[in-house]
Amino acid sequence: MVESTTTMSKDDIPSLMTAAHQNGYGEAFDVLTLAYEVPVPRQLSSNQILVRVYAASINPIDWKLLNGNLSLIIRPSFPHIPGKDVAGVVVNVGSSVKRLKIGDQVYGNVHNDEGAYAEYVRGKESQFALKPSNLTMIEAAAIPLACETSYQALFIKTSPSVGPKSKVFICGGASATGWFAIQMAKAVGAHVATTCSQGNVSLMEKLGYKIIQEANEMTDDPQQLLVIDYNNKNFGEVLQDQNYDLVYDCVGGEQQWLAARRILKRGGQFITIAGDDPEASISLNTVFTLGPRVLSRKLGSVFGSSHHSYMFHMISTSYSELDHMRTAYFGKGK
């Protein structure tokens, strides 16, 4: 499908737009409405750009914000335009913007500013990078938050970063973050295994690797991908003492950490983006218990005999990482 991305002059930018409006907390059908006369955010600070939206994507964090799971720490004023991931065309730039220009096709994550579910979105230049030229707008919009989260977990937070011969286990391979993590880890030559439900094994097969479901079938073949059905098997029992360098948890739940300790090598690393609560609901109880739990595990990593490190990872947006993902992975078809 050919996408029309005709360059728009600043004089052509309308004053009103259509946008999704969140009017409270709850299910999408109850709190989201389509508003047709919303002011276009035309006023830019010096480091901001205005993007005409061609596609936006939905991430788990979006519905968690929508239903109020995170309202204790993030409370937007209503009506509010939600949405983080976006792809589109730059139609205006602030006075200090140098890297991007009007007419550029870009993709990015507007992070806590939100506003992507609209015809136009305003964001910092640092939140956007040039879109991979071999991807459609729809494909590009699905990348920023999930892929950059995993990119940082594998190559920034992990020390040493994942590379050839690294042994990586990914909890939740069928999640967006897990899906990207598998491909990036494989692209740099890592040995990868993952979990998913039996119903999602067909999704794993679409990645093009040689799918195996029994640990005793593993070889040094770089095209192999071990997939463990988490409903029927505990990956900690299946791969006990296999000396994995990294367990990257995209699912959440204490059982992931407990199983990971059984397969990590001495000094191995556990990185989670969900913690013990897969629903990511922030309550007063969470506030009072999360800190002590993380501290306890970090102290255990220092003083315990196995020295397994524990890290709770949250994304920090970076255009340079989006640029690197474009040139090193998507631009090369990896």
Automatic annotation (TrEMBL):
GO molecular function: oxidoreductase activity
Name used for this protein in its record: Enoyl reductase (ER) domain-containing protein
SMART domains, sorted: PKS_ER
Residues in Enoyl reductase (ER) domain copies: 27-328
Family matches, as Pfam families: ADH_N, ADH_zinc_N
Gene3D superfamilies: Medium-chain alcohol dehydrogenases, catalytic domain, NAD(P)-binding Rossmann-like Domain
InterPro entries according to UniProt: ADH-like_C (IPR013149), ADH-like_N (IPR013154), ER (IPR020843), GroES-like_sf (IPR011032), NAD(P)-bd_dom_sf (IPR036291), YIM1/Zinc_Alcohol_DH_Fams (IPR050700)
Taxonomy of the source species: Eukaryota, Metazoa, Spiralia, Gnathifera, Rotifera
